[in-house]
């Protein structure tokens, strides 16, 4: 796929992970865990081009995460290209990032720019929008990127980090933008999600921020953040979201694994990757979920989001480097033709993972999914009652006119 870390990571991480075979691990006969996970993920695309968080409404942010995952894995390039083309439709771009005048959103602009860069498309002409210029117009004198909107500003650490990553790839992030991000660190070295509240370090925010800081060369802040992040890794290799009752999960661990690998924390990144492959569903699982990576053991909800964030973590490929270069169109599956002694508790799990997809009896994508994928759907032409996925457990909150968010 044209990305040097892939071969080394597969040799040192995935092979070890499969040899240890944790509960729920997939039986891989000749295909790497990230490949079969990507093959499953590509097959969840509705009409072969997008995913939905609520029936009939596409989730542009989550569709972008699918593109990143497929490109990182180096397979399903045709599916990734179709998803990127869906995101590049002019109407979809305007709904997601705003009209560039009264409404303009930093996080979605940055995320679409990263999609374009991953696919080798010009981010200055994506769906007839110059994403880089519009993003630059949202930079405040402090260096922070903020939303221009009639509604409350929802920019946060994710939108800032995504902006630094996208602009770094487009030729270089502004010094002030990097300095603002580095300067937002809490006293313990980690980074918060929200800039305007008391500084509380968060695993997900720290992980995406480290990727941006490493890419931009802000090594001191990145080193301190990595030290904090390592201290949050469990004995099993996983990471928890900063939420009451949270458990080690694929989303937080995927983001953390990317950061650890980018920052040179090889042993910790290997351990995180082992945890992630242990959540993959194998031959004793229902056929509909074979290859998927669950959020946590026994939690099938939101498997599309969990899988999309786990794949780059397994490979340890930062969003600064994910690329479709060299990717194939293969759609790998878990090979169940060879008898396996792997044990799993997943066979009794209801395989309903992708609302609006091809699964029967679908359920809402909820669960404890963290930040990166939920950069939301904005529909300025319609006032509607939407469904917001709460991070704390998949509860539904009725809102009016949902805004995109980098949470």
From TrEMBL:
Keywords associated with the record: Membrane, Signal, Transmembrane, Transmembrane helix
TM ranges: 382-400
Keyword Signal in record: yes
Family matches, as CDD domains: ISOPREN_C2_like (cd00688)
Domain of life of the organism encoding this protein: Bacteria
This protein's name: Prenyltransferase-like
Signal peptide coordinates: 1-25
Disordered: annotated segments: 340-372
PANTHER family in alphabetical order: TRANSCOBALAMIN II (PTHR10559:SF18), TRANSCOBALAMIN-1/GASTRIC INTRINSIC FACTOR (PTHR10559)
InterPro entries: Cobalamin_Transport (IPR051588), Terpenoid_cyclase/PrenylTrfase (IPR008930)
This protein's record includes keyword Transmembrane: yes
Biased composition (Low complexity): 340-368
């Amino acid at each position: 796929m044209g990305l040097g870390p892939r071969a080394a990571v597969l040799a040192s991480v995935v092979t070890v992970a499969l040899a240890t075979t944790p509960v729920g691990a997939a039986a891989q006969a000749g295909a790497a865990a990230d490949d079969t996970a990507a093959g499953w993920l590509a097959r969840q695309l509705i009409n072969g081009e997008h995913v939905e968080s609520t029936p009939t409404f596409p989730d542009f942010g989550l569709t972008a995460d699918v593109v990143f995952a497929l490109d990182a894995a180096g397979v399903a390039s045709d599916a990734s290209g179709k998803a990127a083309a869906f995101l590049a439709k002019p109407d979809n771009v305007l709904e997601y990032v705003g009209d560039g005048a009264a409404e303009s959103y930093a996080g979605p602009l940055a995320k679409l720019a990263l999609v374009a860069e991953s696919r080798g498309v010009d981010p200055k002409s994506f769906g007839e929008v110059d994403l880089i210029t519009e993003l630059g117009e949202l930079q405040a004198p402090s260096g922070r990127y903020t939303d221009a909107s009639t509604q409350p500003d929802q920019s946060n650490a994710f939108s800032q980090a995504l902006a630094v990553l996208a602009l770094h790839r487009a030729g270089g992030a502004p010094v002030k933008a990097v300095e603002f991000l580095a300067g937002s660190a809490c006293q313990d070295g980690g980074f918060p999600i929200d800039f305007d509240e008391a500084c509380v370090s968060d695993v997900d925010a720290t992980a995406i921020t480290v990727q941006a800081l490493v890419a931009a060369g802000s090594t001191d802040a990145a080193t301190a953040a990595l030290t904090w992040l390592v201290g949050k890794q469990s004995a099993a290799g996983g990471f928890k979201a900063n939420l009451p009752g949270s458990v080690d999960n694929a989303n937080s661990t995927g983001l953390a694994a990317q950061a650890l690998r980018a920052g040179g924390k090889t042993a910790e990144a290997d351990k995180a990757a082992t945890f992630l492959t242990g959540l993959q569903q194998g031959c004793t699982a229902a056929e509909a979920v074979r290859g998927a990576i669950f959020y946590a053991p026994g939690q099938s909800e939101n498997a599309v989001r969990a899988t999309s964030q786990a794949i780059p973590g397994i490979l340890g490929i930062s969003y600064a480097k994910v690329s479709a270069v060299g990717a194939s169109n293969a759609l790998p599956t878990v090979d169940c033709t060879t008898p396996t002694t792997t044990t799993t508790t997943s066979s009794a799990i209801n395989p309903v993972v992708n609302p609006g997809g091809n699964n029967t009896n679908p359920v809402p994508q909820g669960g404890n999914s963290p930040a990166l994928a939920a950069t939301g759907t904005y529909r300025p032409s319609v006032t509607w009652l939407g469904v917001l996925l709460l991070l704390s457990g998949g509860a539904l909150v009725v809102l009016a006119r949902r805004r995109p968010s980098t949470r």
